[in-house]
Amino acid sequence: MCTLCDNMPQTSPLTGMLVSSGYNQNQNQTKEEGLYYHDNTLVSGSLEALIHHLVPSMDYYPDRTYIFTFLLSSRLFIHPYELMSKVCHLCMEQQRLSDPQADKMRIRKLAPKILQLLQEWTETFSYDFRDERMMRSLKELTQRLSSGDELYRKVVHQMIQVLIRKLTTLSQYEEALVKINATATDRLTVLKAKPQAIQRDMLSICNDPFTMAQQLTHIELERLSNIEPEEFIQAFEKKDLLDNDKSCFSDQKKASSLEAYVQWFNRLSFLVATEICMPVKKKQRARVMEFFIDVARECFNIGNFNSLMAIISGMNMSPVSRLKKTWSKVKTDKFDILEHQMDPSGNFYNYRTALRGATQRSRTANSTREKIVIPFFSLLIKDIYFLNEGCSNRMQNGHVNFEKFWEMAKRVSEFMVWKKVECPFEKDRKILQYLLTAPVFSEDTLYLASYESEGPENHMEKDRWKSLRL
């Protein structure tokens, strides 16, 4: 974040700010009307009061944890563009900035605070500004704040340039995903049309587990980096009955980066199963299994739990797990240890312990490699989902249940720290291309390949094999 000027109110970074739920209200000792506190922690408030609490004044600037938590959760009650409109109105009217005769000293004192709030918003919730109404409000307010002051004009220009760059990067990422998916579809079509065509396998592309784990980590971190915090909220879209039964996301772009990441997990699982079921010879299938076990172990060592779980998931698919003769040729000790680490019993107790260890390592890390924490993403979403479902958004008196949103923001802010890590490993384009576009069998095709490798063993399998061959 650029420094606006020396008297800019300084806020500490988001990292670690939300360790305990709540916000110590030291900066604003008066308890505003419509806001309720318990032990100096904001627990609920009317939507209007919470919006007022977001807007800086001459002697007040909101705590950074409050800004993040409110901007994250407010979209459940009000469109971001409507919130921006209200913020602009409060800044201009409440602080008398719309008055042509407004005291220049007053604007000079207020402008850094309002600009910092806008910086927090544009940097952390950039995707809100894909809406033209948001950009229009942003430009109108910043124009008023920076008129006649060269320093603020530069700050505003820089802020908008950074925002445009980020939105451009997002569009390019979305376009790249479309191309990757189209290539993968084309390759599968070719394979179906010419089943005898020589299909390259993963071991011919890369037979080093450590290198493969590094390339998987590249894909994971790239996809993580494009997920914005509000996507977690939008994933649980609900109609708030106290807001005229309207959805706040009806005319917004859906959580596409989050969906793309979930799709990647599914693709990797099916790719693992495909690579194992494809070879005709048992010895080769066993070799592929052992390779993936080693890749999974390297992923665990790196802190890439998502790829680790995708590999385990692929190896546990029925078409793979039924290959008993192949499994008999595999040394499974290492796989058993990995399965134990990711065992779902006790609400994934072992995995959560390993994740805490990786998170602690990340906080004290000296190297980028040690900073890597890639969570098992489906479980992270499930945790946030149950947190969302477990408490209502509103209190009985209609106030926003802010205690719930502190907790949600704490979970999402931890993810925000993990997604900012740059991948330290060298890219291998050939391996990456293979991982992203190699043909992946459907469940039926996997079963067919599995039965052809090791014949059906019971009536149910025989019936399924017959139906698949028709």
UniProtKB/TrEMBL annotation:
Report the coiled-coil segments.
none
Please give the CDD domains that the UniProt record associates with this protein. RasGEF (cd00155), REM (cd06224)
Task: Note the InterPro entries from the entry.
Answer: Ras-like_GEF, Ras-like_Gua-exchang_fac_N, Ras_G-nucl-exch_fac_CS, Ras_GEF_dom_sf, RASGEF_cat_dom, RASGEF_cat_dom_sf
Domain of life, per lineage: Eukaryota
| Keywords from the named record | Guanine-nucleotide releasing factor
The record ties this protein, via SUPFAM superfamilies, to: Ras GEF
Q: Extract the PROSITE patterns matched here.
A: RASGEF (PS00720), RASGEF_CAT (PS50009), RASGEF_NTER (PS50212)
Set out the biological process GO terms recorded for this chain's protein.
Answer: Ras protein signal transduction
Picking any one GO molecular function of the record gives: guanyl-nucleotide exchange factor activity
**Domain Ras-GEF, residue spans:** 208-456
Which residues are in the N-terminal Ras-GEF domain?
38-168
- The answer to keyword Nucleus applying to this record is no
Pfam families, per this entry? Answer: RasGEF, RasGEF_N
What is the protein name given in its UniProt record? Answer: Uncharacterized protein
